[in-house]
Amino acid sequence: MQTKHDPDEGKSAAKGRLLVVDDESRHADSLATMVTGWGYEVMTAEDGAKAAGMLVTHDFDLVLLDLHMPVADGYKVMDFIRKRGLTTRVITISGDPSMDDAIKSLKKGADNYVRKPVSPVELLKAIDESLRKKAKEQQTSGIRRKAEFQNSLHRMMFDIAPNMQFLLDNKGCFRMVNSVFTRVTGYAKQEILGKHWSSLVEEEEMERMQHVFEERRSAPDRFPEVELRLRCRESAEPAQNSKPRNILVAMQSRRLYSRQGDKKIFFGTYGVARDITQYNKLEELNKYQEFHDTLTGLPNRVLFEDYLSFALTQAKQDDTTLCLLNIVLVDLKQVNERYDHTTGDQCLKIIAARLKRQVRKGDILSRIDGSEFALLLPHVESEKSVIHISEKIRIEIAKPIEVNGRHIILDLTIGSSVFPSDAQTSDDLLRHAQTSHGFHPQSKQRHLLQTSNWVKLIKSQT
Fold it and tell me: pTM of the entire structure?
């Protein structure tokens, strides 16, 4: 730990007390020197654990917090500040080129996010804004949440990473766009503001984006990244380097709410997009394969656990029910042994395609193991709907599969769990579904789809 100025002395002579937390000593010293020159009292800490101790023993107005550190990272420090009820404000710092750190840290309560290498102008502006917030909070305690979120949103839209950013109102019309958005699409702001999002989306993408922007308001607040094509302004003077008619972008979005008492009021959608038209195809493939099963194209276990976590958080917030089905192909091992793994793989691809046709929009289907699939059913309203979906799955998979002239019949079992009655956490929900399978279908008996809410008999294949 290196002290630039002792924050326990001469507070009246300085504009505020700051703690710089960064495991790279050169970066920490550079920030401390810069901030000290602006008239602030500064101390440094080289990891999150030491920062937590200093936050308890010293009264800091603001922390400049590196997100990625050994021992305890910046997110753990923010959790510590929140749990201890400290009034210290936070500005996070990271070299991550994606928007993930920005969105996650702002969601955890940071005032602002600054990207490495740090711009002095951007940092000074962020510090001034955070300290103004702190002063206002001390004067008007408890009456600032909506305005504070709007200020954070404004900074996200215009001051964070060089990505396309936009805000839609509750009717789906553009309310704000940043300069990167206008530069990439070729439209001036006055040509976009007030127009519906559909005016920039290609026709073949319309149904899918309708689902993202309009129909998924019962899904998690933040949606997984989606790819879509946006219409660009066609060049008035066609030339060799003129802008193409459309671009491919990767987009993330989240719904925005204000509060009126205990009621959440939807007032718009915030989105971040990046132009991936010229991206290296191998890089995109590697990223896709990291979160998807290469054989079936379905989300893998890693991505499914993220979906389940989001859905569970939403169900807890909205006091709703969700169901998780665990589908196991019990004959797959015998197919691999009797024929070969190529035949087994073909069976899996066909089964995955059949399962995709049976799920509803908003449901999440994943292959989480060799012969094991998981189906997440958010907002389960009745026993009847789950039984209906399970029966459709059973009937579809029971149909013979033709592979290389062979007619193969696979059997299955279905286990289930329901939040909140069966389990309260993601891991427990999945574990309960995996252990709640009924009788083995090869016994020619009927097996159970069983939860604590209902018990129904589903005929197994005969």
Answer: 0.39
